[in-house]
Specification:
By secondary structure, this protein is an alpha/beta fold. The chain has nine helices and 14 strands. Strands 1, 2, 3, 4, 5, 6, 7, 8, 9, 10, 11, 12, 13 and 14 form a 14-stranded mixed β-sheet that branches.
Length: 286
């Protein structure tokens, strides 16, 4: 296991994106994603994070009605060769940006997952991570992933989560204990959830003294209307860059390893944590 205090040698500029995809239109949404990744690259980003299920849009009725049209297929090695994704491959390669984008993925064994695809700087597309914590009716359409994942960009370790994963402190902690310097979370928060949206990911940052990059969908029609608020948090949970509750936005910030070092020196929870919380809990009358 990589020690939590191991630090990168140089800063990393990242982008988080909020945008509105069209339900079921994988080809059209890929073109939108490609344009946003190019914009991130023009603004100096080396990593860009787009929302959960962005390529097909988070719209369960459409996902249920047309699984063949809304899924992308992965091979046994987790690689994705769907030609609808070609504009994004080209954009990532030309912009020199590693893109993390949400998709519905069909695996060779028949499982369907909510995935974070990684489009690397050579244009290859692979399944980076399958969402482990499914929310509500997602369980009727998808299977949960069974392992965490860490993306390596330069000498940065970037833990991957998707939306509801970030509501569980142990998910972010598992990433941090694997040496993550930042936690990337493509998400889909519905209108009305602003308080929780803004609390969870700031908390994951401070819990684990790591940067957090939270992307979210925006717009759409009720009951599938999303609330933006994409944000990049520093390791104490402060907002480095934050989006409004509506409108497309590409938000960019530079993650500084000196900030990571200073925070982990001042707040040493990762090193001070107990291996367990002791034996049986004591109960007493009041």
């Amino acid at each position: 296991m990589t020690q939590p205090h191991t630090l990168p040698n140089s800063p990393l500029t990242v982008a988080t994106i909020q945008a509105t995809p069209t339900p079921g239109d994988v080809a059209g949404n890929t073109v939108i994603a490609a344009d946003l990744v190019r914009e991130a690259g023009r603004r100096g980003a080396r990593v860009a994070v787009l929302p959960e299920l962005f390529l097909c849009a988070y719209h369960p009725p459409v996902l249920a009605a047309d699984p063949a049209g809304t899924d992308v297929a992965a091979d046994p090695a987790g690689m994705v060769a769907d030609p609808r994704l070609d504009p994004l491959r080209v954009a990532a390669r030309e912009a020199g940006v590693t893109a993390v984008v949400g998709a519905a993925v069909r695996h060779p064994d028949g499982r369907r997952t909510i995935a974070a695809l990684v489009v690397d700087r050579t244009g290859e597309v692979r399944v980076g991570y399958d969402k482990q914590q499914l929310w509500g009716d997602e369980r009727e359409l998808f299977s949960p992933g069974d392992r965490g994942a860490t993306l390596l960009v330069d000498d940065w370790r970037l833990g991957l989560g998707i939306c509801y994963d970030g509501c569980f402190p142990e998910h972010g902690r598992a990433a941090a204990l694997d040496g993550a310097h930042a936690y990337l979370c493509p998400s889909g928060y519905l209108a009305g959830s602003e308080h929780r949206r803004d609390l969870y990911y700031a908390a994951r940052a401070l819990d684990n003294t790591m940067f957090v990059v939270f992307a979210n969908a925006v717009g759409g029609a009720d009951p599938w209307r999303f609330n933006g608020g994409a944000a990049i948090y520093d390791p104490e949970g402060r907002v480095l860059a934050g989006g409004a509750d509506d409108g497309t936005a590409v938000l960019v910030a530079t993650l500084d390893p000196a900030v990571l070092a200073a925070t982990r020196t001042a707040h040493s929870m990762l090193l001070d944590r107990l291996p367990d919380q002791g034996g049986a809990r004591l109960s007493m009358p009041g």
